[in-house]
Amino acid sequence: MGIELKGITKTYDHSDKPVLSEVNAEVQDGELFVIVGPSGCGKSTLLRMVAGIIPISDGILKINGQVMNNVPPKDRNLSMVFQSYALYPFLSVADNVAFGLKARKMAAAEITQRVDDALKMVNLTQYRDRKPRELSGGQRQRVALARAIASDSKICLMDEPLSNLDAQLRVRMRSEIRELQRKLGLTLIYVTHDQTEAMTMADHVMVLHDQHVQQIDSPLGIYNHPANHFVAQFFGTPQINLLTATTSGQTATTKLIVDEFLQVELDAPIATGTYTVGIRPNQLGLKPVNGNEGNATVINVEALGDQTIIEAVMDNDVEIRIVKDGQVHIDLDQRVAVTALGPAFVFDENEALIAEQGGVKDDRIVAVN
Amino acid sequence: MENTIMKQATKKRLLGNTFKYLLLGILAFIVIFPFALGIWTSFLPSMDIAKGTLWGGGQLTLHNYVTAFTQTKILRYLLNSLVIATLVTLAHLFFCSLGAYAFVFLDFKYRDFFFYVVLGTMMLPFEAEVIPNFATVKMLGLLNHYSVMVIPFLTSAFGIFMLRQTFKQIPRDLKEAADVDGLSHWQFYWKVVMPYSKISLCTLAAYSFLGAWNQYLWPMLTTFSDHLRPVQDGLRQLQSEETFNDWGMVQASAAIVVVPTLIVLYIGQHYFKSGLNEGSVK
């Protein structure tokens, strides 16, 4: 059952250009489905269409097999957590959690029970009588979560719920939300602009960009097989290196050449032409060389302790990023020879993935987080 | 030597503060002095006031107040004004908030146009409306009745304008959260918008109450009986009707009339605390 989106399109009255077009997706029961994309890609709009706050211009939305297009939000039986938390400042924590239940005319005893359970689950029992202004950002966030937990609906929508928290708290809340979702068996649609959140939390990820769905897959599926330039660049930190490469010779070949040092050997032959090769920063090798040899110059070194990020500029003026495990000592302006270790993606002139080199390797995941 | 710049800064600040407080003190004196003088004279015997010996000499006495309460209808005037001002205030809170709600949370054609029409009515001075309004209430047969002092003032463009600005501050997310929870417009208005806007509603209430309390021209035109007269007209009545000019008593009555407005202002400013809505979003 779950949630089904078929050709969902949104066009606002005052413009003829859609902000979202032809979104197709299926969200399974009990899964955490992340919608990710840069700001302004329409992800919040999509979420609000699922919630019923914004009308759908075209397409069909089904929840549990029922078409929901013109059904008012409350009859879609879902809960929602907002980026701004949307707490009622004049109500205590407990009343905030109980508010939606009262609006749905639930029996008083059950409301008390649900509020107590929800507050316990987010560790806010001792703050139940406080007003939102007397809470810290993280606690307010928990109140918003408790509201969703207390609701009896099995579908929960979250709109960038962690973006107002500091980095450490965000990491903790990430796993807490994930745990809650599993424990309660919620079907959770989670909107974020943060690829780390998408990678770490999701069962499935939808990448939105430019009004269109770019790819829907599991987090590792997206990381290991990015459908196009955008997806490849959006996932993984530091960003993937995109380099222009040409085939050698006049016939189909397995060899793609960026320059004398940097060459990629493909599994299968490819037609002659010019392509873009994507290589993750940890799949580039780097060796210091003397004098003016090599193909790049180091311009920046970031030592993170357990790994080192090296930025270099290639002789054709393209900047690249290389990640090395451990602490690498290398001087600025040092000439280096950059080589490909193996795995690479090949994109055609339409920026779509057409070939891959090397299978899925676990160590590629190191670049995330 | 190392403290030279700091000492200079301290000196400068001290000088600045002295000047600031001096100026504020002078302004406060100019504003407060007439009131203080009024209260002071209300405790003096009328003979002293007539003679002009305001300071020293005379005994302070409550006699003026006793006379005001026993010899005049001031209690009746107070009651009239209280009834009128309370009704007008409640009506303002209700109708202005409903109007403002529509202008903020409902989508309808020409919404902004209608809002500007409402604003436009603020351009008309009340004096310009007096004659047509008088004709209307006369036709309705409302003259010389409580309702004539309430019905024309059931709503206020200023109130709608002010509450619209307040309601616009309510985060969009709260409306969306309420939609997801299934609140109707009426429930959202009553359970979220009104409590959220408590501060502005209190401000408007104080403003409306004072406005109604200080009505003078309109009640004078539309009521003719002593038992309907509100305080401001009552005061005028005392001053012109009293056989001998008992200035002390008139002054005492004026003080009595001012007291409720001071109470309203005091309660009002108690609510003007800022930050009451902090913590709703972010």
From TrEMBL, chain A:
Q: What name does this protein carry?
A: ABC transporter ATP-binding protein
Q: Which InterPro entries match?
A: AAA+_ATPase, ABC_transporter-like_ATP-bd, ABC_transporter-like_CS, ABC_transpr_MalK/UgpC-like, Mo/tungstate-bd_C_term_dom, NA-bd_OB-fold, P-loop_NTPase
**Keywords in UniProt for this one?**
ATP-binding, Cell membrane, Membrane, Nucleotide-binding, Translocase, Transport
GO MF entries: ATP binding
Q: Where is the ABC transporter domain?
A: 3-235
UniProtKB/TrEMBL annotation, chain B:
**What's the superkingdom here?**
Bacteria
Domain named ABC transmembrane type-1 is located at 78-268
**Pfam families, per the entry:** BPD_transp_1
> Keywords assigned by UniProt?
Cell membrane, Membrane, Transmembrane, Transmembrane helix, Transport
Protein location: Cell membrane
Signal sequence range: none
CDD domains noted in UniProt: TM_PBP2 (cd06261)
Q: Quote the InterPro entries the UniProt record gives.
A: MetI-like (IPR000515), MetI-like_sf (IPR035906)
Q: Which Gene3D superfamilies match?
A: MetI-like
Has keyword Transmembrane helix? yes
Family, as annotated? Belongs to the binding-protein-dependent transport system permease family.
| Identification of the protein by name | Carbohydrate ABC transporter permease
- Species per Swiss-Prot/TrEMBL record: Lactiplantibacillus daoliensis
Q: What is the lineage of its organism?
A: Bacteria, Bacillati, Bacillota, Bacilli, Lactobacillales
